[in-house]
Amino acid sequence: QVSLAESGGGLVQAGDSLRLSCAASGRTASSYSMAWFRQAPGKEREFVAAIMWSDSRTYYADSVKGRFAISREIAKNTVHLQMNSLKPEDTAVYYCAASLGYSGIYYSQRNWYGYWGQGTQVTVSS
Fold first, then answer.
1. Residue in 82, 93, 106, 98 with CA at minimum distance from that of residue 44
2. Is residue 122 a contact partner of residue 91, using CB atoms and an 8 Å limit?
3. Strand pairing of 18-26 and 2-7?
4. What share of the chain is helix, strand, coil (3-state, %, to 5)?
5. How far is CA 22 from the centre of its chain?
6. Whole-Å CA distances, 94 to 8, 19, 27, 85, 102
7. What is the distance between the alpha carbons of residues 66 and 83, in angstroms, rounded to a whole number?
8. Are the C-beta atoms of 23 and 98 separated by less than 8 Å?
9. DSSP secondary structure letters along the chain
């Protein structure tokens, strides 16, 4: 019932910035929390950042805290991930996710999110 489409990925150099966007369609008037996950080759998909529907509280993985910022444009049903000071270890496919759950304690758990985008590649060179 919710479709997500990521955009904004690309190839950048270490220290550069990049802004990812995720456009949601379908149940755009419903309450849902949004998140970004990433997955590097040979590694499990990991939590990056989330923003809660209830109070717009944001959460970040320790590895990106202070460098990344998640934000939401409610009127456009779009969530963004501003990535600054990018490092080679940030290289991964970044996925947008949406959850209709009401218990925000699961914000970092993959199975709390019922909707996923197809992902966008982010490559950071040294």
1. 93
2. yes
3. antiparallel
4. 10, 50, 40
5. 8
6. 10, 11, 22, 16, 24
7. 10
8. no
9. -EEEEEE--EEEETT--EEEEEEEEESTTS--EEEEEEE-TTS--EEEEEE-TTT--EEE-TTTTTTEEEEEEGGGTEEEEEE-S--GGG-EEEEEEEE--S-GGGTT-GGG--EE---EEEEEE-
The DSSP bridge partners found for residue 93 are: 39, 121
Digit-coded pLDDT (tens) for 100-113? 887 888 999 999 99
Closest Cα partner for 122 from 81, 92, 89? 92
Dihedral, 25, 110, 96, 29 alpha carbons, nearest 10: 30
Give pLDDT tens digits for 17-73: 999 999 998 866 567 899 999 999 999 999 999 999 888 899 999 999 999 999 999
Amino acid at 33: S
Identity at 51, one-letter amino acid code: I
DSSP type of residue 65: T
